[in-house]
Specification:
339 residues, alpha/beta, Rossmann fold, 3 domains, six-stranded parallel sheet, five-stranded mixed sheet, 15% strand, elongated, HTH_LacI, DNA-binding, transcription regulation
């Protein structure tokens, strides 16, 4: 190379020209967009490698109108599901070289609005709005410059795209599992009745009992989501001489408290009473003695499907309505079949 000259870095236009495709198609191929044929994607990747082409984010944004980033605004940074939903979204986005920018709204509408505006100023291609519970939340409306998907907490507007877990199905799943284990006198310890998760899980459980021709053992009591409530509610069941051979606890913390009291009273779990929780909180279910059977919300799947829905919308194929993902039962030692 002559002194004073500089080597020009290959550009996206060079890759597109050599591949015989448009610049837009080349960009999509390099991001492994499934709407570009596998043959074209492979061709563009091969040529990019031959030319030692490295994408320039700013240049690509100017050419395609896309920044290659999405925003995820969460109200659950300290909660159980934020990390799992974020991981699910990142698994999908990273496969297409898209970055996820995380913002913590702290369950505060003012913080949420501030973060949305900041993310929009960074030219994100879309937003995932994640709530801390499954109660419907207000819609951001239809006038944002980018598409939005609501994860875990669905939008109140049926024209929006939302994805959450099927809590009603989870309640039914818990009861049917216990029935399959030979249990017929099943009690329920509810969480906070002001949460849709508590009432939805109870609805599913009660319907499953009715379908099986069974009645609930004792009254359905709601309380809090904490272990102290699990202990108190279990003492009430025992002190009132209610006959039961299984207890559905609406989260794992309640179940931990429940098992503590049963063991204090000399009641064997699962031999005398089977116990099932909800959330599949690893630190609780695996340290419980016996290890706790629990319902998993599959939050990682919620995150990955939310990301797929958002990427579809970015490509011009929006989803509408609420999609409810089935939960999964993870059986451990606290529920066994009676002989």
């Amino acid at each position: 190379m002559k002194k004073g000259t500089t080597k020009t870095s290959p550009r996206l236009e060079d890759v597109a020209r050599k591949a015989g495709v448009s610049i837009s198609t080349a960009s999509k191929a390099l991001h492994d967009n499934p709407r570009v044929s596998e043959q074209t994607r492979n061709l563009v990747h091969r040529i990019a490698e031959e030319l030692s082409y490295t994408p320039n984010a700013m240049a690509q944004s100017l050419v395609t109108g896309m920044s290659g980033t999405i925003g995820l605004v969460t109200s659950d940074m300290q909660g159980r599901f934020c990390t799992q939903i974020l991981m699910g979204a990142e698994n999908v986005c990273s496969a297409q070289s898209i970055s996820v920018l995380l913002a913590n709204a702290r369950n505060d509408p003012t913080f949420e609005a501030m973060h949305i505006q900041k993310l929009l100023s960074l030219n994100v291609d879309g937003l995932i709005m994640m709530g801390r519970e499954t109660d419907p939340r207000p819609s951001l409306g239809q006038n944002l410059a980018v598409p939005v998907v609501y994860a875990y907490a669905p939008s109140e507007d049926p024209s929006d795209a939302s994805i959450t877990c099927d809590n009603t199905g989870a309640g039914r799943l818990a009861i049917n599992h216990l029935i399959s284990c030979g249990r017929r006198h099943i009690a329920i310890i509810g969480g906070d009745e002001s949460f849709a998760a508590a009432t939805d899980r109870a609805e599913g459980a009660l319907n499953a009992l009715a379908d099986a021709g069974l009645k609930l053992a004792g009254p359905l009591r709601y309380g809090t989501w904490h272990g102290d409530w699990g202990r108190g509610a279990t003492r009430l069941l025992l002190d009132q001489n209610i006959q039961f051979d299984a207890i559905v606890c609406q989260n794992d913390q309640i179940a931990r408290g429940c098992i503590d009291v049963l063991k204090e009273r000399g009641i064997r779990v699962p031999d005398d009473v089977a116990v099932i929780g909800h959330d599949n909180w690893f630190e609780i279910v695996t340290l419980s003695r016996p290890e706790l059977t629990s319902i998993d919300n599959l939050a990682t799947d919620i995150g990955s499907q939310a990301a797929n829905m958002l990427l579809d919308a970015i490509q011009g194929y929006p989803h509408h309505g609420v999609k409810s993902l089935p939960c999964k039962l993870v059986q451990r030692e606290s529920t066994i079949c009676l002989e």
